[in-house]
Amino acid sequence: MTNTIHRVKEFLKYQRLAKTKYYLHSPFVYQFYLKVLDKVHAAELQNINKLRNQLLNTHYSLLIEDMGSEPGHKKRLVSSIAAKATVPAHYGHVLYNITRQFQPHTIIELGTCLGIGTAYLAAGAPSSTIMTVEGSEALAAEAVKNLEALGIANVSSIVGNFDDRLPELLETIAKVDLAYVDGNHRYEPTMRYFHMIMNKADENTILIFDDIYWSTEMTQAWDEIKADPRVTLTIDIYRFGIAFLRKEKIAKEDFILRY
User: Fold this and answer.
1) What is the DSSP string of 70-132?
2) Which residues contact 252 (CB under 8 A, 6 or more apart)?
3) Is the pLDDT assigned to residue 11 strictly greater than 60?
4) Which residues, including other chains, have CB under 8 Å from residue 165's CB and lie 6 or more apart?
């Protein structure tokens, strides 16, 4: 109940503060609004959205090991997971547009779930290398099946606890171009993953944090990420917090954009 009240309060605050493109004076953010938030690529995403609808009507269950905010083994319907835990199509289009616009070469995703968010990322940048980490073996296997059904081949699936797998993964790559953090919605793990990823980031790296208002802990983490001196520009679209490290920025800027 506490988290629900927090989300409602933050949503009302977001509605009051969010700006449209007509109030933006930053050329970079204005272009971001036009090309990421305004752009619609329905035809390109038709297969992903069709798969999402199929999953919403799938009636078998998976035994899932949750290593996030509510650890333990749980039996859950795939349809329920698709409805409650996968990125909504509205925000999936943002993931697609970001990778389409910026063409990151190396992408890390924490929290594969059913692979829907992964598919949006991959579809926007088909020449990228995507490494996605999922704590639940059953979910990871389901995601691999879904990505294969979509014909997506530029994704490597890694199963295990983020605390173990992320450091191992980062040792194998020179730089993270984009990171999508969608799992373990608690303050301390989120900040730990942020600092790990920042060790392999540069001024062109983009960080996307999901469910920044899911709980007071996630909002605290997002506020600290915004305040980090290495982060020069942030964009808040309520569900996603998007952080840029662009060094040409003279002063730190935080934008709340209506979406």
Assistant:
1) S-EEEEEEHHHHHHHTSPPHHHHHHHHHHHHHH--SEEEEE--TTSHHHHHHHHH-TTSEEEE
2) 229, 231, 232, 233
3) yes
4) 133, 158, 159
- Residue 38: alpha-carbon gap to chain centroid: 18
Q: What is the mean pLDDT of the chain?
A: 94
Lowest mean pLDDT among 64-78, 97-111, 151-165: 64-78
Written in H, E and C, the secondary structure of 44-81 is CCHHHHHHHHHHHCCCCEEEEEECCCCCEEEEEEHHHH
Look up residue 233 and give its two tokens.
């520009």
CATH of span 2-51+87-256: 3.40.50.150
Residue with tokens 């090309």: 35
CA 90 to chain centre: 13
Going from N- to C-terminal start, the domains of the chain cover: 2-51+87-256
d(CA 102, CA 83) in angstroms, rounded, equals 29
pLDDT digits (tens, 9 = 90+) for 204-227: 999 999 999 999 999 999 999 999
Q: Rounded to whole angstroms, how far apart are CA atoms 159 and 168? A: 12
pTM flag (> 0.85): yes
Amino acid sitting at position 91 = Y
CA distance 163 to 31: 36
Element (H, E) at 254: strand 253-256
